[in-house]
Amino acid sequence: MTDTTETLEHRLSRIHLALEKEQLERVDDVLSDLEPAEVALLLESLPPAARISLWERVPGEIDGEVLLHVHDEVRGTLIDDMDHAEIVAATTGLDTTDLAEIFEDLPQQVAADMLRSMDALQRSRLQETLSFEEDSAGRLMRTDTIAVRADVSLETVRRFLRWKEAVPDNTHMLMVVDRNGRFVGVLPLARLIANDPEMAVADLMDSDVDSIQVTMKSTDVATLFQTHDLTSAPVVDESGLLLGRIIIDDIVDVIRENSEQALMNMAGLDEEEDLFAPVMPSAKRRAVWLGINLLTAFLAAWVIGRFEAALDQIVALAVLMPIVASMGGIAGSQTLTLAIRGLALGQISRTNSHWLLRKEIGIAALNGVLWSLVVAVLAVLWFNSIAIGVIIAAALVINMLAAGVAGIVIPLMLKRAGIDPALSGSVILTTVTDVVGFMSFLGLATVFLL
Amino acid sequence: MTDTTETLEHRLSRIHLALEKEQLERVDDVLSDLEPAEVALLLESLPPAARISLWERVPGEIDGEVLLHVHDEVRGTLIDDMDHAEIVAATTGLDTTDLAEIFEDLPQQVAADMLRSMDALQRSRLQETLSFEEDSAGRLMRTDTIAVRADVSLETVRRFLRWKEAVPDNTHMLMVVDRNGRFVGVLPLARLIANDPEMAVADLMDSDVDSIQVTMKSTDVATLFQTHDLTSAPVVDESGLLLGRIIIDDIVDVIRENSEQALMNMAGLDEEEDLFAPVMPSAKRRAVWLGINLLTAFLAAWVIGRFEAALDQIVALAVLMPIVASMGGIAGSQTLTLAIRGLALGQISRTNSHWLLRKEIGIAALNGVLWSLVVAVLAVLWFNSIAIGVIIAAALVINMLAAGVAGIVIPLMLKRAGIDPALSGSVILTTVTDVVGFMSFLGLATVFLL
């Protein structure tokens, strides 16, 4: 029985120490207890040199599974360390679905050789899987389905299963098909056991089952699994022919990746980013995001520059102006995050977005008034000028209202344009709250104080 | 067969339209096709009045399941609309685990009455479940486990199952216990079917199985399910007594909630927040977050105020200073997000944090130098002063280095202090990048330009 109580963090410390002291038997000791997915997490947690040392100690028979479980970018670093023969050996044991997932990350020469070394059936299966779109049900589907005909008896099914011997342990239902291979229902193993052997499959099967079109998007498949509490589901083509099944293990990965994605994208990072990527490529990737944000910052600076006269005469404006921009940014990002989650769950549409907008404007108005009073009092006390207090209060209310509107409108517009709102939303929002913040505060000051 | 191709968004539009036009049969029409979890998503997507209209049309027999699936805050609004008898009726069909999840949200009077109306067994089960900590395995566990003894034959097990009749369709393994009820292994149904009826359970069972301590934290249970590709696992107490099982359906919810949480917390929002919460309570909750950020903003303003002399003489400083603060903020939030994901996955510990810090400093240095050159050139062209270009470049490099360090150190310190880094990390980070940004830019200007 594996020790389920040791945390990853503790294992990490143990293996790190063992690697540093080059106590290789200790490394092997930790490794021997671990599942491939755990080895994957460990590898991802190590800086490049230690990662490669550990990778070279990982038993060859789980190499393939480990490659499957790491993020794309980490997979690249591991494959770079393997020679041709190792890659072929690692991937040979994988089933078609898993192989397809990593196939495109393999060096071209290796991929070509692998295709050549496969038998015709394997090759055509792999090519069929690869022909489905990357994020579709076809790529998630397993083809190890056990299908039986509806018109046979339970006894026949039992004999068939006994003859087949290798029924996967995680099977809990059999697929039922008609004579043309079209899906007609499922037979839970529990019913197969608990009923009279003379009964026909057709009498016991459940035909009110959700079947999944092979072209369905994987995020939609994940939603279906969650809302219908499924643990596995049949996959069919447009004519209803049974092609395979999707199991919840693979759906869990889709769900996790999707939610990680929103978090990472909001900071302009890729969900597949390697925590320990080398400095140079990481810096390059982040440079793009910083560059885009620099444009925003210069736009804000340009707005400020329009009001040099005011800034020149009243230094308090320069001191207080970041408060207006910052409060707008914070309020806006709250609204934006709520909208991004709502959009991800499919809960925001044209029909309810007006209501949402009204609600967010209401919240912005209340908080705008509340905090602008606080800011006004502090500003008056600080700079001894009632006019400045009134102006910053007005600017703050304006900017928070703008933030509330932008927090809803921007993600909706991006979504409609087919752009990921999590990725671009925050930059555009900041642009709005900076520009509106500086413009309203400095603009009002120019009109009323100069 | 339900139509699995209609998106939530489309259903939402249909039901919204039907509610608006008061075409109640159409509403019932949409509802009749839906699973409780889908009804829950729909209810969450509706503003208060429409939500209540829809809730009143939801068939009573799925009320309990729907209540289970909505976010805590929405559950409150639905329960408020139900009378005593409706609540009791809705919750009667739920099993102990599900009931425990919503029990604490029920009005006190209802909860007391329900406890009184239960039989002794039900009541003690519920109280036992409630005695486990909120986010522990004990709360996730189902007690509908089917357990068999290791020393009986497969034939006996089959007869037992046939006699029991109601084996849940989603059962795919039986638990095996010794004569004292201690967990010894599992018997997959697939093996029960595919083997000779004369064999003993002990010969076929899998005893190398991960069992879960009832006190284990639910996030750790979720990690275990993911890394070990489990679909169900036995739950035991410290003496090894079998208490129940956890199934993957419930784990999927834990995984989804955890990842939603990081996203929402980074914006100072609660994961259970209702998209359509009324304005007043929403405004109140967000006010706290805005207030905390206002302190940050005033701290930054105070720092700027220290340099009034410089700002008074050189207006370009006021124009350019937000660029330094903003670039630091963006760079820092990238590092912070990466660290928060790493911490959530358990991939960052004391042993590798130094390496991570070095890497982030390296990235900050490269991007700092790159973008400070760009900014310097633009600043020189804009304000015709080489000195200002040099100073803003130096300040930018300093602030981006500070951002890289803060992006790693802050979440690690928060984690060690037991504070959620996603919730507090971004405020503290912004404080650092604002203060360091303004101080370095205006400070250098004061020293070299005045």
UniProtKB/TrEMBL annotation, chains A, B:
Its main location: membrane. InterPro entries: CBS_dom, CBS_dom_sf, Mg_transptr_MgtE_intracell_dom, MgtE_N_sf, MgtE_transporter, SLC41_membr_dom, SLC41_membr_dom_sf. SUPFAM superfamilies: CBS-domain pair, MgtE membrane domain-like, MgtE N-terminal domain-like. SMART domains: MgtE_N. It is a multi-pass membrane protein. Gene3D superfamilies: CBS-domain, MgtE N-terminal domain-like, SLC41 divalent cation transporters, integral membrane domain. The chain crosses the membrane at residues 287-305, 317-340, 361-382, 388-414, 426-449. It comes from the Bacteria. Keywords: CBS domain, Cell membrane, Magnesium, Membrane, Metal-binding, Transmembrane, Transmembrane helix, Transport. It is found in: Cell membrane; Membrane. Pfam families: CBS (PF00571), MgtE (PF01769), MgtE_N (PF03448). The keyword Transmembrane helix applies. The keyword Cell membrane applies. Residues 141-204, 205-263 form the CBS domain. PROSITE patterns: CBS. Homodimer. Belongs to the SLC41A transporter family. PANTHER family: MAGNESIUM TRANSPORTER MGTE (PTHR43773). Acts as a magnesium transporter. This is Magnesium transporter MgtE. It comes from Halomonas saccharevitans. The gene is mgtE.
